[in-house]
Amino acid sequence: MARRDKVLLSVLAAALLGILVLLALLGWYLWRESVLAEEARLEQLSQRLGEQTERAIVDARDLLDRLNRLDLTPCSPEHLEVLQNAAIARPHVRAIGYWHAVERQCGAGYVQGQALTPPRASRIYDSGVIAWWPGPATAVGGVELFLMRFGQHDLAIDPRLLMTPGLLEDAKVGLWVEDLSMAVYPLGVELPEPGDVRPGLTVDRANNQIVSRFSLGTVFPIDVVAVQPIGLFWERYLPTLVGAGFLGLLLAGLWLVAVLRYLRQHLSLSTELQEAIANDRLSVVYQPIVDLGSRRCQGAEALVRWHREGDESVSPDVFVPLAEASGQATELTLSVLRRVLRDLGKPLRQYSGLIINLNLTAQDLATPRFAEALAELQQQEGVSPASIKLEITERALLNSDEVRERIAALRARGHPIAIDDFGTGYSSLAYLERFQLDTLKIDKAFVDGIEGQAVASSVIGHIIDMARSLRLDIVAEGIESEHQVDWLRQQGVQFGQGYLFSPPLPAAKFRNWCNRR
């Protein structure tokens, strides 16, 4: 499989994986948000039911207290009228009665006589309130009532009327007060005890249902347990999930289109670069390197340029990494070398002191092919290896025996070796000592710092000291002012390049420029 196809498949696989991850994250997020929304809805329902129950119980206690303080003859028409009105005002109150000793004397509502005399109370409070929770012992006419007695009066609450159907919708809901069951909806449904349910919302996939439990305890400890089929959850949130899913698919589609467009452009550019290299359509310009003292031309750095059809320029920052990524870096370097030998072969043969710097990539040092082609081209043109200085970036100085051996072999053949853009990586003196080098080039970023920045100047001073300790020639890049030249000369830097002296020049102009110096 061709490298181009491998790159295409790799990028497409990465894009598809990214889409799958995006959709998975979107699905997880939407599910989570839907569950949180349902949890908030059920919590609000539980809060309303709990508060409604609290109000009913507190109101019942306060009502009994007020009835006990009435200055009316027990069971008189006036007394019974008050009881009747109190019951009518509270739909959930089914009966109110008056007691004397252990006998119910009279009352209002549909519970008459001694019907409300369960054998044992569920709770007896310090305040004197006695309560019976709904159960068989409190059933009247098949309805299990909640009973409360305080002083000489009691009342019966139908707990079914506390469970507002419109509020509950299709859920099964249970209401517990002080850990005792108060009511369930619908009637007779079986629900788990609050202690068996985790607080909040739980998706019970085994039983295909959603179970929730929420608690409040402003006055009494109240728990509300709700169970609903998971299908109701889907009915409630499916439109949102589907809509968001379509949005996710749309975003995924746009992402895929963007990736394919990038691939088309990237691979098209890669193919164009391959054709430009093969058909010798790359050009080379030369930025002079001068002696900072005499300002005489010592040589130049060869810089590759690419002009596409229509005179559109592609930056080296774009096509050089592209060449490395597509495996064309060595072909690119050799193409530059061929152009250098064609442009400057004659002066390089005539003037032994003229040196052209050729930039290498990490790929050039990874295999023996570049060194073999370099030797063959030099022999064909009759150019001495000493005339071609090989620039290696600090990042390309891999700490491997194989790379060190190749650098040493190139130097042994007569090629000067320079480390380029020094200071932008993490090389130390001990690290550089492992390689056989001749020249150290100081990156433009540090030269720029000479202009009044003490910190940068101290860094560049450290770099210069390091080069001296290794007995390397020093070239400063990107010089733009005489002040920089003066400072560099004071520090012992011999050579430099930059727009102060000359921009990169075509071959003919470079030859003329050098001849004048």
From TrEMBL:
One of its GO terms (cellular component) is plasma membrane. Keywords: c-di-GMP, Cell membrane, Hydrolase, Membrane, Transmembrane, Transmembrane helix. It is a multi-pass membrane protein. One of its GO terms (molecular function) is cyclic-guanylate-specific phosphodiesterase activity. Gene3D superfamilies: EAL domain. Its main location: membrane. It catalyses: 3',3'-c-di-GMP + H2O = 5'-phosphoguanylyl(3'->5')guanosine + H(+). This is cyclic-guanylate-specific phosphodiesterase.
